[in-house]
Each structure stands twice: as C-alpha cells, then as structure tokens.
Amino acid sequence: MRRYVKKGSILLIITFIATLLNACTAVNQYSNASQAGKKEFKVGMVIYNAEDTFIGYLRDMVAYYIELYEEEAGVQIELEVLDSANSEELQNNQIDHFIKEGYDVILANTVDRADASMIIDKAQRAKIDTIFFNREPVPQDMKKWDRIYYVGTSAEEAGRMQGEILVETINNGLALDKNKDGKIQYVMIEGEHGHQDAILRTYHCIKVLEENGLKMENLGTDSGSWLKNEGKAMMETWLEEFGDDIEIVLSNNDDMALGAIEALKEYGYFNGEQWMPVIGVDGVDEALEAIENGTMIGTILNDYDEQAKCIVYKLYQCIGVNDLEIDISTEEKDNYFWVKHKKVTKENVDTVKKHTSILKK
Ligand code: BGC
Ligand code: CA
Question: Signal sequence span per UniProt (predicted)?
Fold first, then answer.
C-alpha cells in the first residue's frame, strides 16, 4: 500500500514520454538539481530541536520514504539531518553548510518562523529548492520565490476538532461541570509562543466549546514549549493552586498533555477514584496508549505519515523525478500542502496505530 501505484503499460509509455519532457524542462528550470543524467543527490534537513517527539516522528518518516522510493526513481539520495538544538544561530550555520557543500534540496523546520526569510534569501541566491515543514513561514516570505514549498496542517482545524471531541463526549453523557456552577473551569497548556499552532489551536478549541453553549472559565494558561516536563511542571503549579476545581486540561500537543497526566497521577488522579479529562494533539504512541487506557479523552492526529509522504513527493519533484506516484491524499496548491487532521478517541484509536508501525520495523 505504501508502494508506488503500479500502472498499465499504456500509462507506462505516457509516463516515459512525460519523464523525457520533464527532463528537458528540468534542465532549464533547475540549475542545481536535475542536471540531465545526474543520479546522486544530497538533501540537507534541519530540525528545530531533536528532543521534540513529534518532529522526531516526522524526521524518521521522511528518511524512511526517501529510501523507499530511491530504487523506483533510479537515484541515490544522501540525507543529512542536523539538529538545530533550538538555536537560530546554529541553524543559520547549518544552512550555510548545505549551501557551501552544494546540497540539492533543503528541508527546513525553522527554529523561529521569522527565520524563514533569511533562509529563503540564501536558498534563492544558491538556487536550492527548499521545502519548509511544520513551522510555517509567513505568507509574505512564501511569496519571495517560487521554488519554496510548505508542508503542514491547519492550526485552526486542530483546535476546532479538539472542541468538537469534547462537545461529542459531553453529548454522550460526560458531566464536566463538577461543581455545578454552570461553567467549565479549564487550564490550557500552550505550545511555544510565536508558533502558528499555539495561538490558533487554543483560540479555536475554546471558540467551538463556546459556540456549543458552554461557559468556559480559564483558571490558567501558560506555554509549555511543546515539552512533556514543562507540561508536568505547569500542571503541578495549577494543582497546588486550584486542586480539584480544575474540570478539564486542554493542551496544544500530546507531550505536554502526557506531562500533565504524570502530575495528575502524582496528585492521586487515575487511581480509580479521581479522574480528569485531558486532551492533546499529535497522535504520538504514548497518547494513543493513554486513550486506550482511559487517561486521555482523545487527541487530534497531526498526520506525520501523510506529511512525510508529501515532503518526499515534493523532494523527488525538486530533483526532477516527476513520474513517481506516491499515494498521498493531499493536493499541492500554490506551493502549499495542507494535510488534514483526524479526531482520535477510544472508538477509532486502533485505526491510527498503524501510522507509527513503520517506525518500529
Ligand atoms: C506539534 C507539536 C510540535 C511542534 C513543533 C506541532 O505541530 O503538534 O507537538 O512540538 O509542532 O514545531
Ligand atoms: Ca464548573
């Protein structure tokens, strides 16, 4: 299923002709990559921080799919992945290194969204196609050059879906309003400030809940920088301050939600007597397990499998391989790939588990 779609012979001939045509245009269009006859390519990938669980999934999936399609594409790709360890300066040096060493394509997960501008200028000067992912450059930057691309998800959609899961769970009988004061007291663990996914996920989650007639009362909102230990520390502070007055824990991602669950366990929750609804985003393994065992109400799948496939699909196009048919369900529109989210609850958690099974092989 994750293989190339096999085609009949007529289509093969068409593909062959298309490849020839592509090869011709590619030479003009791309000066670095796609030089006629070139079979070996170097791809440089920077990730903002290797400690980030979700980014780790994306990195591994991209490496997996690059390798999977090499033979079919008849090329060899050397992938170098560099960890920018949350340092903009280090990331800039890493980009300079890719340029100096004549890399053919850059895959960029920026430390700061605002850095995209500088990376685009450098890539354009060196004529190196660049695919940004997960950290979305601002639209003005994306317009700077036509050989830059973005693969990501809609932050609004993830937030909305979180709200919808909660509304559905309430409709199915979950009583959130423990103290029966007509309001839902919540805490919100946010991602890194400045990240498109932090502000928008929060805003749209609360909006959906309010649109459905719930009165939401915020007890605390803080940034846990996407990290589990920070989510845990934040939850400890709130539990000290508000105790069981908290009626729900909302989190911009799974890792911070899982950190909050660790804190909740230490404060006596999930031991059969006390329970707390917690929801995240991403669909990482540990969250899927938490959904199965009832410590998480749900999550939103930030489809890393599909995102990795889109990145790899575009990457092959950038090096002039246009005849690969990868089974992606996302269309490219104006250099953007917007991958759809999916709601995950106890009912469908099984179907999502296959996503990470590739990584465990
Ligand atoms: C994910 C987070 C991740 C962040 C990194 C978000 O889309 O939901 O888990 O830490 O991207 O940029
Ligand atoms: Ca209440």
Answer: 1-23
73 and 168, same domain (yes or no)? no
Residues in the chain where the model's pLDDT stays below 70: 1-35, 355-361
The residues lining ligand 1, judged by C-beta closer than 6 Å to any ligand atom, are: 52, 54-55, 134-135, 195, 197, 226, 253, 281-282, 302
- CB-proximal residues (5 Å) to ion ligand 2: 177, 179, 181, 183
109 & 250 share domain: no
> How many domains is the chain built from?
2
Residue 113 within any structural domain of the chain: yes
Q: 0.85 cut: is pTM over it?
A: yes
Q: Any long-range contacts for 292-298 (C-beta under 8 Å, 24+ apart)? A: 292/346, 292/349, 294/270, 294/346, 295/261, 295/270, 296/254, 296/257, 296/258, 296/261, 297/165, 297/166, 297/169, 297/345, 298/162, 298/165, 298/169, 298/343, 298/344, 298/345, 298/346
Residues 164 and 242 in one domain: yes
What are the pLDDT digits (tens) for 178-218?
A: 999 999 999 999 999 989 899 899 999 999 999 999 999 99
Model confidence over 50-98: pLDDT tens digits?
Answer: 999 999 999 999 999 999 999 999 999 999 999 999 999 999 999 999 9
Asked if residue 259 and residue 126 are part of one domain, the reply reads no
On average, the pLDDT of the chain sits at 90
Same domain, 202 and 260: yes
